[in-house]
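#onboarding

Welcome to the new folks! Below is a worked example of what a typical request in this channel looks like: someone posts a single protein sequence, and someone else replies with the predicted structure as tokens. Don't worry about understanding the tokens yet, we'll cover that in week two.

Example request:
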Amino acid sequence: MQRTQLTLAVVALAAVLAWLLWSRPPPPQPVRQSQPQQTLALAAPPTGGDFRLDSAAETLALTQLRGKVVLLYFGYTSCPDICPTNLAFIAAALKGLTPAELARVQVWFISVDPERDTPARLATYAAWFHPNIRGVTGTPEQIAAAARLYGAAYRRVAEPDSAMGYLVDHSASTYLVDPQGRLAQTLDHATPPDTIAAAIRHLLGAPQSQ
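Example response:
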């Protein structure tokens, strides 16, 4: 009888311990934002301006796109979340335009990771989102000069425990250039496609300067 009571007590104790183990909430896990927003300290607001970078097919100059609305986005193909989100939203906005409107719009995805993002890799990556998105890159000096014109910020961050080796923290704004080549508007990260499309249409419909 005593042995039976002892056995029951052990089973009951084990049940209580199991309940405590399984009902205990897991310890909080550290949250790391893979691409934190960066604020670039500038002596003056971004001015915009022309620059030249390389696509897979040719060297492109922003001056070649006069008469079109141009969207500039600085990022890189290995970006795990922010770049795909923004590019998907931009692509959705482009898909909502009429063919006539779309013919007057160009998007440049400017890589801030020239070490890994070759023009060929950028071409494949950008085209996956939309044919009107072109991937461009250049030397570190060329990319830095273009970023300064538009107030884009980025920095390389070592990731020794990752197979990638490093990430690039970067700002996530989209810069709208009007048909005259002027910086007209800056859109925040994850701006809804309808808002992007409305901003594009506004610039397409603005009176042209003589």
